[in-house]
Automatic annotation (TrEMBL):
Source organism of this protein record: Flavobacterium caeni
Highest rank taxon of the organism: Bacteria
Listed SUPFAM superfamilies: Nucleotide-binding domain (SSF51971)
Record InterPro entries: FAD/NAD-bd_sf (IPR036188)
Name of this protein: Uncharacterized protein
Length: 51
């Protein structure tokens, strides 16, 4: 089974984890157009840290 996930935010990453647990042989490709993974939470910066 091949799955392509667009977006490495919480939704895309959690979906990928659940699918991998349910179908360990699944090949999952996650495409994220930002350098950071983690979606909106990763984009928040405070004192040079990503929250
Ligand atoms: C300031 C702030 C504080 C928050 N605090 C909390 C909190 O305390 N607790 C909480 O539960 N929720 C919080 N949220 C809400 C939480 O961030 C969102 O509910 C959550 O990020 C949604 O996850 P998502 O994966 O659906 O979308 P997103 O986080 O938006 O992830 C989508 C990802 O897809 C990528 N993407 C989009 N289009 C493409 C494309 N064409 N190709 C490749 N990649 C693409 C984006 O770059 C992004 O990384 C907060 C949100 C903000 C903005």
């Amino acid at each position: 089974m091949k799955i392509t996930v667009i977006g490495g935010g919480p939704g895309g990453l959690y979906f990928s984890i659940l699918v991998k647990k349910a179908v360990p042989t699944a090949q999952i490709d996650v495409f994220e157009h930002l350098k950071l993974k983690g979606g909106q939470p990763a984009a928040v910066r405070y004192k040079n840290n990503h929250l």
